[in-house]
Design goal:
heterodimer; A: about 775 residues; mainly alpha; two-stranded antiparallel ribbon; disordered C terminus; B: about 140 residues; 2 strands; about 70% helix
Chain lengths: ~775, ~140
């Protein structure tokens, strides 16, 4: 029942304010036990998963509809699951220190736990639609996390931008997943991955791939959708450390890796992924060195890493697969640690600008060490895991089948820039001359050091001994799972003297040179600023403005607050729809045998008179009364045709309507003639057309009998099956109870809406301006 | 603008309201076999309170209702509607399948449709009374 345990996270999220109340500042530590426990469970499954390939954990949810919540635990989802839970525990402990005494710590816990569970669900889901639901949940919860400082307009704007970009991609993803489901004939990932049929040959392959890639690229901040990620740095640093290093942004990468065995390897896949990935890699690394804000530096280097991962999936060779998993793990470890170090620096010095910091090594020796280890892994210096990842990456670029020259060039340039970024982040704040900072810096509390120290230690240990704790076995198994064929590339610090190693050494030197000259380079790069303003983000902005303009325009046109216009639009639509189908699809029936009694004619005549008088009446009360006469006549017709329930209902509704009308009548403005005679003619024509059409519809539907009426069944079975003789009531509470339940909610919503609007007006009445508003008719 | 009514209305309302309420419960309980049912009964009950509102005004009606806010009745109605869904689950039957029990001593047919119908009754009663009451409250504040 791992599903249950994972979903318990949502319950825990809901309960976390209570935990905050009980445990105070230590609540973060208590909550961290949850991901830590899940991590332990996942780790225990690892040997079996590596041995058998995959585990399918099924939990029947609605068996009669075949809906189940099934988790697919193979080495890929296990690796991601471990990253999510371990990083989650670290981040929770870290956040307890970072957001110490923050009044909204409880809200942070709710959102972070909800995000963690959504992310776990995403990587563990077996059903395509389950995956999609969790995918959207991560978008929503990350929106809440990015906009955590909701009083800051910038945070709100960034959160909205992230949400729009990822949710727009989510829509494309949904289309892609549906196409995938149709093409493969299965909604289970395990079955899709197992089946013989080759989806690459399928007619839907191209549209499916485009949709899936749009979803993955927006989520994983690939060029040109990368701009939301640096803006998302408005989030508190623990959020960035979690979402923007190992989890949220890797969801797209996960999806691509997951589908690689079925969809990868085609010319389109290789071309799009390698080129987009390589471009993202270079653009991210290039844009990074523009910034002095440490979080932006890290965010752009994350874009670089995400591009690298996409590119490796595009290349798709055996080396590339091993490089992919190693790079993925290495990046998660060092980027999580670096973000947390950035948070410590921000927290202790009061600034995020690396040029404002310096010489902090003496006051923060532990932080400096952690930063150095993590940054060296980022730079790809032995003996850290990042070095192995980079070696394998360069090796696979050199062995790429297509676009080799381009990829090698981009990878080389990107690694120089990345190395410079690594040095900037690790050396600039800690070495050199001490700067005056807004806060007097001192070493971070142990809670904040624990997480990054663990992650940095991981980078170091796994670099020195890739076999520790069976890590290399898991990585190789993952590479095998992604590639679909057995991959046997051993992880090692030493692959001999080869081109990749030489490229590494040269880029290290050039990167260090760039770091030394960073200040002057940054000055020179500022001439590019006008060009930068026309980047993809400008496109996003103008698109959003366009949408706002469009909705303003259509609101002015359709939602203009004039009751008569609403009714006109509705009736015109009705005429168009009914008229179309009745005149073009069926031939209308005009001839009907009339067998009317005298009293029926009298009732009908009364109704017509009432309707006519309502239209020409010059007093509002007169109009209400004549509409009432119509309503009572309808009730009479129900009585004549022996439908007592309907008659009672009609009478009661009519009575209450008149009461409500009387209550609102006095607050309406004086009765006056607002429409010109031309408009009145138009309204008359529309009204007449509706009347005639409805009449035709009734006559036609009377003569067309396509199906056996269901009323026979209902009449026959109401007593034996539903134990009731009043069919109307049996329909309401038994046959169609679900409809009635829905209508109850609609009624309740309407009542709450009416009450709320009236109360709202009541409350604003105390202010002066509202007096005018109250006098103004709503529809005038 | 709606002040307390005339002597005739006041006297009539005092006698009619309990009668109307009793009639509404009668309609509610017989609804499954004879004309009636939760919706109609709810409207009749709402009519009873509306009559009382017209005769004695909002504050007097609130006193009659004691602690019960009509808006809460909406929630009670929805809750009863949802509760009537549950028993079928325990019987392993699809959502909303009607369950019937006979209470032995008084020989009364209890069922989930009845619970559901009571839910409809409260939702309708609460919605209509709530709306009318709020409208009259707004009126009262008007200069």
């Amino acid at each position: 029942m791992i599903q249950f345990a994972v979903l318990m996270g949502f319950v825990l999220a809901a309960l976390s304010p209570m935990l905050n109340h009980w445990f105070g500042q230590r609540a973060s530590l208590v909550l961290a036990l949850f991901p830590a426990g899940l991590a332990a469970w996942l780790a225990l499954q690892a040997p079996e998963v590596i041995e058998n390939g995959s585990l399918l954990l099924e939990w029947q949810w609605v068996p009669s509809l075949g809906i189940s919540l099934t988790f697919l635990l193979d080495s890929l989802s296990l690796l991601f699951g471990l990253l999510i839970t371990v990083m989650g525990a670290c981040v929770l402990v870290y956040a307890g220190g970072y957001l110490k005494d923050h009044p909204d710590l409880a809200r942070f816990h709710i959102a972070l736990l909800a995000f963690m569970v959504s992310m776990l669900g995403l990587v563990l889901a077996d059903g395509l639609l389950t995956l999609f639901v969790f995918w959207e949940l991560t978008s929503i919860t990350s929106y809440l996390l990015i906009g955590f400082n909701h009083a800051d307009i910038n945070a709100r704007k960034s959160a909205r931008q992230g949400l729009f970009v990822t949710v727009a991609g989510g829509l494309a993803l949904m289309a892609g997943l549906v196409l995938l489901g149709i093409a493969s004939g299965s909604w289970s990932l395990a079955e899709i991955l197992d089946q013989e049929a080759d989806l690459r040959e399928h007619a839907l392959y191209t549209p499916m791939l485009i949709c899936l890639l749009l979803g993955a690229f927006t989520k994983s901040a690939q060029f040109p959708f990368h701009f939301w990620l640096p803006n998302a740095m408005a989030a508190p640093t623990p959020v960035s450390a979690y979402l923007h290093s190992a989890t949220m942004v890797k969801a797209g990468i996960y999806l691509l890796a997951r589908l690689h065995p079925e969809l990868g390897g085609t010319a389109m896949w290789v071309g799009v992924l390698s080129v987009v990935g390589a471009t993202t890699m270079l653009v991210g690394a290039f844009l990074a060195i523009h910034h002095t804000n440490i979080k932006k530096l890290l965010a752009y280097s994350t874009i670089m890493a995400l591009g690298t991962l996409t590119m490796l999936l595009g290349i798709g060779t055996e080396y590339a697969m091993t490089a992919f998993v190693t790079f993925l793990l290495a990046h998660s470890l060092y980027k999580g640690a670096l973000f947390m170090v950035a948070g410590i620096l921000d927290h202790e010095t009061g600034t995020k600008d690396v040029t404002q910091m310096g010489g902090l090594r003496s006051v923060m020796p532990l932080t400096a060490t952690i930063a150095l280890v993590a940054a060296l892994s980022l730079a790809g210096v032995p003996p850290l895991l990042g070095f192995i990842g980079k070696e394998l990456m360069l090796e696979s670029v050199l062995g790429a089948d297509s676009f080799r020259t381009l990829l090698v060039l981009f990878a080389f340039l990107a690694s120089i820039l990345t190395i410079a970024v690594a040095f900037i982040v690790a050396l600039r704040p800690f070495y050199g001359k001490r700067h005056q900072t807004p806060l007097e810096p001192h070493e971070a509390p142990p809670g904040m050091l624990l997480g990054p120290a663990l992650l940095a230690l991981g980078s170091l240990l796994l670099g020195l001994m890739p076999a520790v704790l069976g890590a290399d076995a898991l990585l190789t198994a993952t590479a095998t799972a992604i590639s679909g064929q057995t991959v046997e590339v051993a992880l090692s610090l030493w692959y001999g003297i080869n081109v990749a190693l030489i490229m590494s050494i040269v880029s290290l030197g050039l990167g260090f040179l760039l770091f030394r000259r960073w200040d002057s380079v940054r000055g020179k790069l500022s001439v590019l600023a006008p060009v930068m303003r026309h980047g993809p983000e400008a496109g996003y902005e103008s698109m959003m403005n366009g949408i706002v303009h469009f909705s303003e325009w259509q609101t002015r046109l359709l939602q203009n607050g004039y009751m008569r216009n609403y009714i006109l639009v509705m009736l015109a639509t009705l005429i168009a729809l009914i008229g179309n189908s009745i005149l073009l699809r069926h031939s209308p029936v005009f001839a009907v045998d009339l067998d009317v009694r005298f009293h029926e004619v009298v009732v009908a005549g009364t109704m017509v008179m009432g309707a006519l008088f309502a239209t020409i009446s010059r007093s509002r009360l007169g109009a209400v009364v004549s509409v009432g006469i119509m309503g009572f006549s309808i009730a009479l017709i129900f009585v004549l045709f022996s439908a007592p329930d309907l008659a009672i209902t009609q009478l009661l509704v009519e009575t209450l309507t008149v009461i409500l009308l009387v209550l609102v009548l006095f607050r309406l403005p004086r009765f006056s003639n607002l429409s010109t005679s031309l408009e009145r003619i138009r309204d008359g024509v529309v009204a007449a057309m509706v009347g005639i059409l409805i009449c035709l519809l009734i006559m036609t539907s009377w003569s067309i009998q396509q199906f056996e009426p269901i009323s026979t069944y209902m009449i026959e079975n109401s007593a034996p099956l539903a134990y009731g003789r009043n069919i109307v009531n049996v329909i309401l509470v038994d046959y169609r109870a679900l409809d009635t339940l829905g209508e109850m909610f609609v009624l309740a919503l309407a009542a709450i809406g009416v009450i709320a609007m009236l109360k709202l007006r009541n409350n604003t009445k105390t202010t002066d301006s509202s007096k005018v508003a109250a006098k103004e008719p709503y529809d005038g | 603008m709606v002040k307390s009514g005339t002597i005739i209305l006041n006297t009539a309302a005092r006698f009619l309201m309990p009668l109307q309420l009793m009639f509404s419960i009668f309609l509610l309980l017989r609804g499954h076999d004879e004309p009636g049912g939760g919706f109609i009964a709810g409207l009749v009950a709402a009519g009873a309170f509306t009559l009382y509102l017209f005769a004695f005004g909002v504050s007097a009606t609130k006193e009659v209702l004691r602690m019960v806010d009509p808006r809460d009745l909406i929630g009670v109605g929805l809750l009863l509607g949802m509760i009537s869904v549950v028993p079928a689950w325990f019987m392993g039957q699809p959502f909303l399948t009607a369950q019937w029990w006979t209470i032995p001593v008084i020989d009364f047919k209890a069922s989930t449709p009845l619970i559901f119908d009571v839910g409809v009754y409260f939702a309708v009663l609460g919605s209509v009374t709530g709306m009318v009451m709020t409208l009259m409250e707004v009126d009262k504040d008007e200069p």
